[in-house]
Amino acid sequence: MADLYIKRGHNIQIAGTPVKEVVKAKTPSSVAILPTDFRGVKPKLLVKEGDTVKIGSPLFHCKSNPSITWPSPGGGTVKSIQYGPRRVIEKIEIELSDSEESESYPSFRFNEISGLNRVEILDALQKGNLFPFIRQRPFNKVADPNTTPRDIFISGWNTAPLSVDLDLALRRRLSPFQAGINALQKLTDGDVHLSYNENSVSDTLLEVEHVKKHSLQGPHPAGNVGIQIHHVAPLGLTDLVWTVNAQDVVRIGNFLLTGKLDTTLFATVGGPSVTSPTHVKTRMGVQMSTLTEERLSEGNHRIISGDVLTGKTTDQNGFLGFYHSTVSVLPEGGDREFMGMLRPGSSKTRYSLTNAFLGFAKDKFNFTTLNNGSERYMVPINAWEDVLPMDILPNALYRAILAQDIEEMEQLGIMECDEEDFALCSFACPSKIDVGGTIRDGLDLMEKEG
């Protein structure tokens, strides 16, 4: 029986679920890192166009904290540096060489890692440019190595639509995963928490040691690390915790064991527009065309880096986000169906969490990008509360954020929140309110005022 059963939430029945097998992706010609993926970071370039870089070479650092540097996801030539409005760096693209080279840093034997102290682990990760793989709550931004987290949380279960099955991604990777856990243990005075689905069959998740394990069951967003923190060890107003993606724990472990950055990434390509949705073995920062080529049906599609609830729109020439391991593709919506909610018949073109239309149930739904309406007055029918498994009043918190009432926001639990945990509220909202976006506005305000 699961240690924790999440009751509230919803698993979106979207068509194009990736099959549970892994295929090898095509070799890309270039990879990229997108500095806009990192909240609150003002990058200062360490390279220029035409420079030769290796896998793991530092590309830029944060102006406010130069000790945090970002690694190159490939070896070759800096092909382009793209700037946006106000000279904001949006993309650093690396054209891969035929014989990629990697930066080499000091490595350790497996048994040596447990004997390292916190300063030595921090020094290794910072010199190897790996600290961006660690994020902190509140605010869900890159962690500050000058702070000590209360705990570190790792989610070993993805529940977001079309996301990677970590049982597949972590298969036969126990040794580097354990090495990563042993290192992370040195970075906190508290515990390293690992959560996973009670039906997991992964040897990596089930056999790893030196962590506090929590088995889970329930609908999305049960797999979100923010939901797990809320139920396992909630954040106080002054608490700070770090989070690491499960695949990045392997990356950290591999780095310490080999002295080189492992760019391997298990990703998914799925959605109603994908003809052969599947898991793929690829690499960080890969171009979308490498993953979607020959996999899309005919028509006009929207390609999303990440899942359909929290991802970012891109195109075939775009690149996978730094923290993303899902490519979601949906057909662009056409005209809205007249009085569609009242028309009986098949639910092929309708989906509802509240049975608000006349239709018949369907296992998988061919979603499009159509909103079926625009933002309107709030309708207090508990639509948000029914899909948010947190002891937080989302309606009251939303109003406090709009009023910019800092004290009220604190009392209502804003510091425990992140927009990804409220993404289902936006999806379920009958008023078409971007609840997650408002939560982010509130967090930005709290950080600015703090």
Describe this structure in words.
- The protein is an alpha/beta fold.
- Among the domains are: 30-96, Beta Barrel (OB fold (Dihydrolipoamide Acetyltransferase, E2P)), CATH 2.40.50; 385-449, no CATH class.
- Helix content is 22%, strand content 22%.
- It is built from twelve helices and 20 strands.
- The chain has helices at residues 110-113, 118-127, 166-169, 174-185, 203-207, 225-232, 246-258, 288-292, 394-402, 406-411, 423-428, 435-449, and strands at residues 4-5, 19-24, 30-33, 43-45, 52-53, 58-62, 65-71, 76-83, 89-96, 134-137, 141-142, 152-155, 192-197, 212-217, 241-244, 264-270, 278-283, 301-305, 312-314, 326-331.
- The strands form four sheets. A seven-stranded mixed beta sheet has the order 1-14-13-12-15-10-11, with helices on both faces. The protein has a six-stranded mixed beta sheet with strand order 2-17-16-20-18-19.
- β8 and β9 form a beta hairpin.
- The longest helix is centred in the last third of the chain and has 15 residues, at 435-449.
- It is globular.
- The two termini are 42 Å apart.
- The mean pLDDT is 93.
Structural descriptors:
single chain, 450 residues, alpha/beta, OB fold (Dihydrolipoamide Acetyltransferase, E2P), seven-stranded mixed beta sheet, six-stranded mixed beta sheet, 12 helices, 22% strand
